[in-house]
Amino acid sequence: MGVGYEASPLHRISFLVVDDSAPYTTEPPAGWGLPPIPGAKYKYMTDPPRFRSPAASEIIRWRDQLALKYLAQLGERLTWDEESAYAVGEEAAVSADVMLRYVAAIVDERGPGGLRGLVGAERPPREETHRALDAVERRGFTGRFPQLSLGEYYWLPFQRNLIIEEPDWKGKTARFGSIYRLADQLSDIRALLLQADPGCAEWTAEREVPTRILWAAWQASETMAKICAAGAERHLPVWTTG
Fold first, then answer.
1. What pLDDT does 147 receive?
2. Which of 87, 119, 135, 198 is 20 to 30 Å from the Cα of 19, by its Cα?
3. Considering the domain boundaries, does residue 171 fall inside one?
4. In this structure, is residue 85 part of a structural domain?
C-alpha cells in the first residue's frame, strides 16, 4: 500500500463513479479474500467499476477563475498546459510518507538538532506521531515546511510560498501549494537528514521500507523530490492520491 504522487495535468485524475442504483448482490464474488465483519451488511457491485476524469476544459475554466482571484497574492498569472499528455508518477510507502512528515514536525518543534535524537530510532508509537502532526496543523503556515506538512493534495506551478484553500473543480474545499517551494523545502529537509545520519541515503525507493525513522523519511523524500522535479521542469501540477 502506498501514497501515489504524479506530475501531470489535472484532467488525468480519475475517480470512482458511485451509482447507488447500479445492480448489486449481497454475496461476495469468488476469490474475495477479506474476512466478513459480524453484523455488517455489504453490497457487491455486479458490473465492473466505472471511473471518471474531469474534462480539460472543466479544469481550465476552474483554474482561470482561481488565477484571476489570486493574481495579486501570487504576483503572476497561474497557468499550465492542461492539454499536455505528459504524466509521470511513483508511489511512496504510507509508513515512509508519514515518517517524512513526522521528521518535518520534529524540526519545527525542536530545531534541526532535534533530529540527532532520532538517529537509529525506530518508528515512534502512533500516539506520538499524531501528537507531532496535530501540532503542525495548529502552527499552520508559521512552520518551516508548510508546503510539505499542511496536508496538501495538490501543488500548482506558481512561485510564491503560499497555500491556497479553495474549492476544487468539483466544489470540494482543498489546499493548493507551490511545487517550486515544495521543491525548496524538500531540499532543505533532505540536507538535514543527511547531516543527522548520512547512512539514511543508502535507502532508495526500490528497496524495502526501513523501520528507522530517518531512513524511512529519506526514502519518501526520494519519491517526492523526483516527482516534484518533473512537475517543476514541465511547469505542471503535482498531485497525490492521498
1. 94
2. 87
3. yes
4. yes
Distance in angstroms (rounded) separating the CA atoms of residues 77 and 75:
7
Q: pLDDT tens for residues 34-47? A: 655 555 566 655 55
> CA–CA separation, 242 vs 240, rounded Å?
5
26 in a structural domain: no
In the prediction, which pLDDT does 184 show? 97
What is the tally of structural domains in the chain? 1
Spatial separation of the C-alpha atoms in residues 209 and 94, rounded to whole Å: 10
Rounded to the nearest 10 degrees, the angle between the axes of helix 94-110 and helix 179-196 is 80
Grid cell, residue 198, equals 548520512
Bridge partners of 52? 15
Nearest-angstrom CA–CA distance, 159 and 182: 10
Q: C-alpha grid cell for residue 95? A: 509508513
Under 8 Å between Cβ of 182 and 228: yes
Grid cell at residue 22 = 447500479
**Tens-place pLDDT, residues 114-124:** 999 999 999 99
**pTM for the whole structure:** 0.83
**Distance from chain centroid for Cα 54:** 20
Contact 100, 180 (CB under 8 A): no
Question: What distance in Å separates the CA atoms of residue 72 and residue 57, rounded to the nearest whole number?
Answer: 24
Residues with Cβ within 8 Å of 222's Cβ and at least 6 positions away in sequence, in order, are: 204, 205
> For every residue of 180-235, which 3-state class applies, written as one string?
HHHHHHHHHHHHHHHHHCHHHHHCCCCCCCCCEHHHHHHHHHHHHHHHHHHHHHHC
The DSSP symbol for 207 reads S
CB contact at 8 A, 56 and 11:
yes
Q: Is the pLDDT of residue 219 over 70?
A: yes
In a domain, 46, yes or no: no
Whether 229 contacts 109, CB under 8 Å: no
